[in-house]
Design a protein that fits this description.
The protein is an alpha/beta fold and 281 residues long. The protein contains eleven helices and ten strands. The chain is 42% helix and 13% strand. Strands 3-4-5-6-7-8-9-10 form an eight-stranded parallel β-sheet. Strand 7, helix 5 and strand 8 (154-158) form a beta-alpha-beta unit. The chain starts with a strand and ends with a helix.
Amino acid sequence: MEFVTLNNGIKMPILGYGVYQVDPAECERCVLDAIEVGYRSIDTAQAYYNEDGVGNAIKKSGVPREELFITTKVWISNAGYEKAKTSIDESLRKLQTEYVDLLLIHQPFNDYYGTYRAMEEAYKAGKAKAIGVSNFYPDRFIDLSTFVNVQPAVNQVETHVFQQQKAAHEIMRKYGTQIMSWGPFAEGKNDYFQNPTLKEIGEKHGKTVAQTALRFLIQKGVVVIPKSTRKERMVENFNVFDFILSDEYMAGIEKLDTGESCFFSHYDPETVEFLAGLGKK
């Protein structure tokens, strides 16, 4: 396993297992499978409704807690200082742990300044080893970073071969914040797994499209958390440390970047109305 060192000295696996859209009923089994395969970083969130399953798997895995890296996120409806404080403790209860390794604001809506203050307190109290944000575009990221006491350690944003976040990555690097990818496979959009560039480069190394795409991001210094409910796919996604892409191949994959989201834009009023509305539920 390769690691990145966050801005406060905490080491984080560059490859983890994400449980977004994993049914709560099978989350425990999936996380146990992932840990058995070798994953030590697990990414969940309040909005995924499967923190309980992650917590059960952590307890049953037999792996010492200090060897695991657990991430969760505060949802929009729990935004604001008081609500966030309560929700953080509730997440720890569900995860059956005294601390999380990384605590993020899930979306830049509602009172995320109040949320961040609660997270800073959690960080100072040892309830979180590191704190950061998710889905913060450069403008809001810079704004928040300028006025908080603890610089975000991570910003988790949509990042894959079609949306490589080149400009955002440079800004995060300037502020000492680690970029982390959600959706490293773009959920298969744009005929992802049949992409001729990724297929050709993968075949040269005896690797799949998925492995090639993950290796590209890892070599770019991006933390990735691919999700699968199938153990054989977990194994495949984990086996990306035994080959290196040449500069030529890296440049070829860089050309796939469209600079646009495959999902949504926080600059779109309808998207903002939808996400902001979730904060009232």
